[in-house]
Sequence to fold (492 residues):
Amino acid sequence: MKATVPITVASLKVACSQCNLVELCLPFGMSESEIDRLDELVGARRKIKRQQHLYRAGDPFEAIYAIRAGSFKTDVLLEDGREQVTGFQMTGEMLGLDGISTEAHSCNAIALEDSEVCVIAYSKLEELSRVVEGLQLQFHKVMSREIVRDHGVMTLLGSMRAEERLAAFLLNMSQRFTARGFSPAEFHLRMTREEIGSYLGLKLETVSRAFSKFQDEGLIAVQQKHIRILDIVGLKRLIQPPSPRP
Amino acid sequence: MKATVPITVASLKVACSQCNLVELCLPFGMSESEIDRLDELVGARRKIKRQQHLYRAGDPFEAIYAIRAGSFKTDVLLEDGREQVTGFQMTGEMLGLDGISTEAHSCNAIALEDSEVCVIAYSKLEELSRVVEGLQLQFHKVMSREIVRDHGVMTLLGSMRAEERLAAFLLNMSQRFTARGFSPAEFHLRMTREEIGSYLGLKLETVSRAFSKFQDEGLIAVQQKHIRILDIVGLKRLIQPPSPRP
DNA sequence: ATGGACCGTTGATCCACGTCAACCACGAAA
DNA sequence: TTTCGTGGTTGACGTGGATCAACGGTCCAT
Fold:
């Protein structure tokens, strides 16, 4: 009976060094001894049910979050009710970085499915990253990567057509699922057509039509949220038309 | 004769504590004693002539830059020649943060006029921000602010119409000029219509037409790159239509 | 199993913005 | 001065994606 106790304790322990997401998450690139020192960083885990907010725009900023399980969207709401989805986040990715600048969150983070996050008190992160060099560098890289990613989205929104946008989105999802050990060619989207549309600057009808068109052309097989990519090369070709400018 | 020497030396000295941009730049919010310690941070200044690159996509990342005088645009070039301007930067703002993540720059930074930047070796910044707490916090805030700004642009590109975008752009410029001690209502744009269009996800003709429309409506007076804002409230009203949704 | 809410698909029509083209204003160089 | 090149404006026209509308599928809760 008692033999089960240590196992239970171990599985409940919150520790980066025990986590199978190290290679995707904040500890990526850090030495083992450095990662050991992170174990004090994650104060607690927090479960968020589907459709619930992890935080809302305006909430005071105290912590950033690493996704331990599940997935999220972040969005900003305009005064007139328009919504702009600014990103989709998967396991190992960080949430809440936007809050540092004003010490209040500037967007909403909403779980797309029942999820769990590691809560990283920002004050503790600052403190620890002063002594653990690898943590300092990795944290900066995580923020910088977010900036680069946002520039990619701006490019997509500013200069690509609807089908290019969706192709880029699918390839991005495929790549991220692959990095997490899932199939590059077959995956389940957790977000609705409307959320995809908002992210891509399109209406849901346009997203739906583009999905259908890709299916007609044999590029993918769609069944609701389940996607199978049949022709990766074809999708990539959509984004980079072969003949540049005359 | 020799009396002029110390003055010359002082004016050449590269020092945040002597700089009149402290309130806009990295040292913002830091104590005087902390700022004094920054003086070793800025290794050198660098002058960039109009249309020249400060760095290019792919360049190895070694430093970030604080704009001391002048202004820049950052852009990414797609393989087929399309350009997406990802931002315009003014004095006191930082350039190069995108390079941390991959240790190579991911966009181009091009001077819109003859400009000068302070070169901040990234290794030195890391080192110093481990001991100067205020620097660590401020640097994180600068990165976070960039993320928030990018989300704003994504919102603009993803869910606003042409005239809303241009109004938002003008109000943003006005606010930034104001913060630098210039008139909120009258300023000189350093970028072309095409660059504005690229930034806003519009063609230059659309930008031009929107300028003309605003002028016809008495919101602004345009003379080439010289802008006078005549009705700020009217511009703001354009972004937030008074009647939300029925 | 049944009703209902939500989500997705598809068609018909519309319009905001892109495209194409002509022309004009300004500054630099000759 | 004239010329040239770049940048800006404006008009006519075309189109990609939005809008409006109807319907079908799926997943719940009862």
Remarks:
- Chain B touches chain A through 50 residues (CB under 8 Å).
- The mean pLDDT of chain B is 92.
- Residues 192-194, 204-205, 207-209, 211-212, 224-225 of chain B lie near DNA strand D (CB under 10 Å from a C1').
- DSSP finds eight helices and eleven strands in chain B.
